[in-house]
Amino acid sequence: MKTLKVSIVTPDGPVFESDVEMISTKAQSGELGILPGHIPMVAPLEIGAVRLKNGGNTELVAVSGGFIEVRPEQVTILAQAAEKAESIDIQRAKEAKARAEDRMQAKKDDVDFQRAELALKRAMNRINVTSNK
Ligand code: ATP
C-alpha cells in the first residue's frame, strides 16, 4: 500500500507524525478524503476529527480548526490545538462543555455567544473523539 507522510502541528509542537494510507477530515468546504497522489491544495478546516488509517487501524486526532496543506506525498495540518484521542482529558472537556453552555444561556452579547459556541464545538469534538477511539 502507498502511504502519505502526515504531520499535525500546533504552536506547542508536533502532535502526530507518521505515514498513513488515508487521511480524512472536514474542511470548511466539506468532507475531505486524501490518498497518496492527491492534487496539491490548501484548505481551512472545521473543528473536527482527523481520521488516520493505516494497516487496518484508524487513529483519531481532535483538531481545533486550522489549515490543511496537501501535497502528493505529504499532508500537513497546522492548528491552534490538536490532541490524540488518548491524550484527551475527558473530564476537562465535559467541564468546558458545561461552561460554554452556561455562557450561551447567559447571552450577554454576540461576542461572548460566539466565543462560547466555539468553545462548545471544541469540547464536543474532544468528547466525540474519545468516545470513538
Ligand atoms: P479549556 O476551557 O478546557 O481550556 P479550550 O477549548 O478553551 O478548553 P484550547 O484553548 O482549545 O482549550 O486549548 C488550550 C490547550 O489545552 C491546548 O494545548 C489543547 O491541546 C489543550 N486542551 C484543551 N482541552 C483539552 C482536553 N480536554 N484534554 C487535553 N488537552 C486539552
From TrEMBL:
Pfam families: ATP-synt_DE, ATP-synt_DE_N. Residues 90-117 form a coiled coil. Keywords: ATP synthesis, Cell membrane, CF(1), Coiled coil, Hydrogen ion transport, Ion transport, Membrane, Transport. It comes from Bacillus spongiae. PANTHER family: ATP SYNTHASE DELTA/EPSILON CHAIN, ATP SYNTHASE EPSILON CHAIN, CHLOROPLASTIC. This is ATP synthase epsilon chain. The keyword Transport applies. It is found in: Cell membrane. Residues 86-130 form the ATP synthase epsilon subunit C-terminal domain. Produces ATP from ADP in the presence of a proton gradient across the membrane. The keyword rRNA-binding does not apply. It comes from the Bacteria. It is a peripheral membrane protein. Residues 4-82 form the ATP synthase F1 complex delta/epsilon subunit N-terminal domain.
